[in-house]
Each structure stands twice: as C-alpha cells, then as structure tokens.
# Entry
Amino acid sequence: MKSVLLYLHGFNSSPGSAKAQQMAAWVAANRPDIEVIIPAQPNTPATAWAAIEQTIADLQRRYGSDYKLGAVGSSLGGFMATRVSEQYGCRAALINPAVRPHELLCDYLGPQTNPYTGEQYELLPQHMDELRALAVPVTAPER
# Structure
C-alpha cells in the first residue's frame, strides 16, 4: 500500500514556501517510502477546495484503494486539512491552523498579491461565506 502525504499551504503561500519545502526534504531524507504532494492551491476558498478534491480524486484514480492518505496543513491549509481529515477519514497534522478563517481573514479583504507567485486577486466578503461553508466539526480529534 502506498503512503501519500498531502501538504496544504496557507493563505497567500505556495508549494515553494519554506515550511512546505522543509517538510518535503525531511520526508525525502527520512521516509522515502512516503510520496509527498504539495499542490498549488487557488487563492479563493471554494476553488482551493475544488483543487484539493481534484488532487485526491487523481490519487484515487492512480492508486485505487491501495493507498493511505495523510494531510498536513499550515494556517489556512490547516483549516483545509481538517476538512480533508473529516471527509476522507485520514490523519492530519495541523501547523498553527486557522480555526475560524472567515473571522481572521476579514482584516485582509481587498486587493491581494501572492508574494510567491505574484498573482493578484481580490479577497471579497463572498470568500468569507465560502470559508464558513467549508467549516466542518471535528468528530475524531485523535486523527
């Protein structure tokens, strides 16, 4: 069975962030049996979640049921990793997770530039609604 670790970056971050790259390097050096996937996530919540689901669907097509998924998420990625854990029943490690991002990110409404990609976009009140809709209760904190 293949082990796959899905790393989800935070708000205005990217797969090139220091945390993502350090984790990938550590896993490569210490657990080469684990495949690390660090997808670039779109900047808005609903599209980011759709991209995460697509990444997992691609894994399911590639491995069928012969893989074990784990998730790691940092900040907003921790919020998304919580949803992955609840929806797919896998373990998750959360690094400084955003617990109520719809409240936290209200202070950032308006024009944004992702410092890693240079992409410009606008964070809108509707994105706070998307975050509220993505929130899930934690039913198995031991995961």
